[in-house]
Specification:
The protein is α+β, with helices and mostly antiparallel strands. 17% of the residues lie in helices and 25% in strands. A hairpin with a 2-residue loop joins strand 3 and strand 4 (65-66).
């Protein structure tokens, strides 16, 4: 299944400046795994190495829906979906 992943600017140094990647998988977790296969180091930035779960600051949206309101990394994806990685922004 082909899914488009939108990669934020802070992670593009790991993707040689690529801002959009086509990846395969049936769940968000598999998509992140395939993205890391193509661009080693991406998973380390997004996931906690001890648990393998997404870090709190890594907001991931599947077709504009926050995966935290779905099934997190186990959320199913289908051909043509779009996954957006959005780093948390703090300020005041």
């Amino acid at each position: 299944m082909a899914v488009t992943v939108l990669i934020p600017t802070p992670l593009q140094r790991l993707t040689s400046g690529v801002g959009e990647a086509m990846v395969s998988g049936s769940t968000v977790g598999e998509i992140i795994g395939d993205l890391d296969r193509q661009y080693p180091g991406v998973r380390d930035r997004l996931c906690n190495p001890e648990t393998g779960r997404l870090r709190r600051f890594a907001n991931v949206y599947l077709n504009s829906e926050d995966i935290r309101h779905l099934q997190n990394e186990e959320t199913l994806v289908k051909d043509g979906d779009e996954l957006s990685i959005v780093p948390a922004v703090a300020g005041g």
